[in-house]
Amino acid sequence: MAIRDDAAAIAADIAELRHAIHREPEIGLDLPKTQRKVLAALDGLPLEISTGRGLTSVTAVLRGALPGPAVLLRADMDALPVTEATGVPYASQIDGAMHACGHDLHTAMLAGAARLLSARQAEIAGSVIFMFQPGEEGEHGARYMIEEGLLEAAGARPAHAYGLHVISHELPNGVFTTRPGPLLAATDSLDVTVLGRGGHASVPYLNADPVPAICEMVTALQTMVTRRFNVFDPVVITVGSLHTGTARNVIPDTATFNATVRSFSEEARRRLELESVRLVRDIANAHGLAADAQYTRGYPVTVNDSAEAAFAAEAVSELFGAARKRTRAHPLTGGEDFSYVLEQVPGAFIILGACPPDADPATAPSNHSAVAVFDDCVLADGAALYAGLALRRLAPD
């Protein structure tokens, strides 16, 4: 429990850093203000620090007093293009930007963990890599950090990797959850333009109307999901944007839709890519039209190593008690670019409930909402878990 006590002793500092980051959210791969705040928080610690070349990442290495493997701990730092409406005292001061997904908490927690572990340097047999990452929200920041040498930062590649993510709803405050195997979905996109020939709506037989074809595509994709894919290896296709036409009496030349595509296995992902594109092109052809269909791969499936997921769950029980641990029955359909790390390093991703204690997790606003609120009370526990995972893995024999 000493690590929890030490984390509680610096909880105010962790919260102060979180609030400072929250007030000045930055989006994407270029986060200079956030990077400066992280570097200031790490200043004076016995760390080997480097920054990214093509993005404003921070990588810090703590070398223990004894030889051993390396453990990677990750926090993402970027915000979302959302205008905050929470009314909290430390609300965003930047119009159109908000830490609506809790990355400000992750960053502050990991900086706190760096302090906790630095104070225990003599107890560590190996190295800890602290990964402060921009561009998680669709910008592939983790992949770029890997390409810039993240996994070689300590010399030997890490043997274990752990990430933590808060959630503003669903889970009670302070409860941790994870699962072996797939935890989060692959996040791909399907963008389709149906090419027709416009004209007067009163004489459709003289034109080539893309509207019926695109409507058929949207419904056919849903049928494909239920009839072509195993329900025990689920997939999701949601058309979130559909645009065509300018007037009721004009047949348009084109119609477009954009869909998000989620899957939990590489086999299902490959089939989705092949069959969704073939389906929309075949429907267009049946209508005497053409379709430009582009399937774009996003983040891979986030897959927890089974042994690492069990290890993380044991660490939660040891630090906080069994009542604070839950095993998820099913994966989440959100995506996460920590998946790029877990493709190369055995590890686990853990979810932490940060719903305010006076709110109902079942009805509280979710991550990415303009009114999502994440409770400061979980900051010390998040820092303690980051540090506890590393300490357990790097304990001397």
Task: Give your account of this protein's structure.
The protein has 397 residues and is α/β, with parallel strands linked by helices. It contains ten helices and 16 strands. The protein has helices spanning 2-9, 11-23, 32-42, 103-118, 141-147, 210-228, 266-286, 306-320, 339-342, 379-393; strands at 48-51, 58-63, 66-76, 125-133, 160-167, 176-178, 181-184, 186-195, 199-200, 235-244, 250-251, 254-263, 290-299, 302-304, 325-327, 347-353. Strands 1-2-4-3-5-16-6-15 form an eight-stranded mixed sheet, sandwiched between helices. A hairpin with a 6-residue loop joins strand 1 and strand 2 (58-63). Helix 4 packs across helix 10. It is elongated.
